[in-house]
Specification:
Elements (H helix, E strand, L loop, with lengths): L2 H23 L1 H17 L11 H19 L1 H79 L8 H32 L7 E4 H6 L2 H11 L2 E5 L6 E4 L1 H17 L5 E8 L5 E8 L34 H11 L3 E7 L3 E9 L2 H26 L23
Parallel strand pairs: 2-4
Antiparallel strand pairs: 1-3, 4-5, 5-7, 6-7
Helix pairs in contact: 1-3, 1-4, 2-3, 4-5, 5-9, 8-9
Length: 402
């Protein structure tokens, strides 16, 4: 109901109530007028002539008298009813205006939220492009610096004194560390922008993990940590991306070496409880992670331990974020169990066949989409124009005989 209609209705009801009150204010004059009017109708005489009324006219007159007496005796009730009616109408008007305002406010808020979402997506895209460009521009000159340092330390430009050689080794070590951090930023920005291609091939999971033995056994010997490999004898064939799997396991082993000062690191490969997937675990006896930080360790630039342990490198907190991004794109999952001061266990679950899981997911999405479209067609009846022809139209084409 519009505002004008509500106001007109309220004015009309108020006018009627005032008229009723005025009518009930003087019952005597009303009685006299009604009696005279009935008498004049019945006899055709002047109202002041004392004509006798018929029985039918007596009934009408008594009913009118009862009505006037009832109105006169319930003046307060009529007043309260008029006030209540007016209040209800005003309340309805207020509710209607409030609902219209709330609807307009909801639409404005929805528009604002859409604008904020678009703005956030645009800023995220700009951030990814900025990280990508800056990382690429920093990586190129840094690679040149590292190359020249290696040439100098190898003696290609003449002999170097022992003191200068130690200084160059420190410079080379820190330059390599800086290059690794830039590489992490570059990889993360590409993964976030979806510019890292996926190359699915048939591979042996055991062999992919075994290729990392030499590198990490050397790092563990430097820190005095025991590195154990629990690998199955039978090969585990899967369809996945070998480069990404190596990156995932390598990042987990780097974190294990970084935060483990004594004890051991164990790498396990085997079948998962599900028949369609395999499992890789990296367990350490290092510093561990507190329960309050477990939910956020896969966020970018998140570092639980702000300071590195002795003989280990610092970082920028992108290793586990890169691991999660890789696994999301090859349909894998990762979980962690940890206790502060006792170590951590990172568990990776990978599908045996990436393409099959992808096609199955597409099939499920397609089935859900078809059901949604079918429900929409049932909810919206199709109106077909009727065409007058000389033949009777068939109700169902499937029952027609050619």
């Amino acid at each position: 109901m519009s505002l004008r209609s509500v106001l007109c209705t309220a004015f009309a009801l108020t006018t009627v109530a005032v008229g009723v009150l005025a009518f009930a204010a003087d019952t005597r004059s009303s009685d006299r007028f009604l009696l005279q009017w009935v008498q004049s109708r019945g006899t055709g005489l002047h109202p002041q002539q004392g004509a006798r009324l018929s029985p039918k006219e007596d009934i009408v007159t008594s009913q009118l008298e009862s009505l006037t007496r009832l109105l006169g005796a319930n003046k307060e009730l009529i007043i309260y009813g008029a006030i209540a009616s007016f209040g209800i109408l005003m309340m309805g008007l207020a509710i209607g205006s409030a609902s219209s305002n709330s609807t307009s406010n909801a639409a404005a808020q929805l528009t604002l939220l859409k604008q904020e979402k678009e703005k956030a997506e645009h800023l995220a895209k700009l951030k990814s492009e900025f990280l990508n460009q800056v990382s690429h521009e920093l990586r190129t000159p840094l690679a040149v610096i590292i190359g020249y340092i290696e040439c100098i330390t190898d003696g290609l430009y003449g002999e170097v004194e022992a003191k200068h050689h130690e200084i160059l080794q420190v410079v080379a070590k820190q330059s390599t560390h800086l290059k690794n951090m830039i590489d992490q930023i570059l990889i993360y920005s590409r993964l976030e922008a979806g510019k890292q291609p996926i190359r699915i091939e048939e591979l042996q999971l055991t062999k992919v993990v075994s290729d990392l033995k030499d590198t990490f056994e050397f790092l563990c010997r430097q820190k005095g940590i025991e590195l154990c490999w629990d690998l199955p004898r039978d090969p585990l064939p899967i369809h996945s991306d070998a480069t990404r799997l190596k990156e995932v396991v390598s990042n987990l082993l780097q974190n294990a070496v970084k935060y483990t000062d004594r004890g051991s690191i164990t790498v396990r490969v085997g079948n998962s409880p599900s028949a369609d997937s395999v499992m890789v675990e990296v367990q350490d006896t290092g510093m561990g992670i507190s329960e309050q930080h477990l939910s956020g360790i896969f966020e970018p630039f998140m570092q639980v331990h702000k300071t590195s342990s002795e003989n280990s490198r610092g970082g920028i907190g992108l290793g586990l974020s890169i691991v999660k991004k890789h696994l999301e794109q090859i349909r894998g999952t990762i979980s962690v169990e940890s206790e502060l001061g006792k170590g951590s266990v990172f568990r990776i679950v990978l599908p045996r066949n990436h393409d099959r899981q992808k096609s199955r997911r597409r099939w499920l999405l397609g089935l859900a989409k078809k059901r949604s479209n079918a429900n929409d067609r049932l909810a919206q009846p199709v109106l077909k124009p009727h065409i007058e022809t000389g033949r009777q139209p068939a109700s169902d084409g499937s029952h027609m005989v050619g």
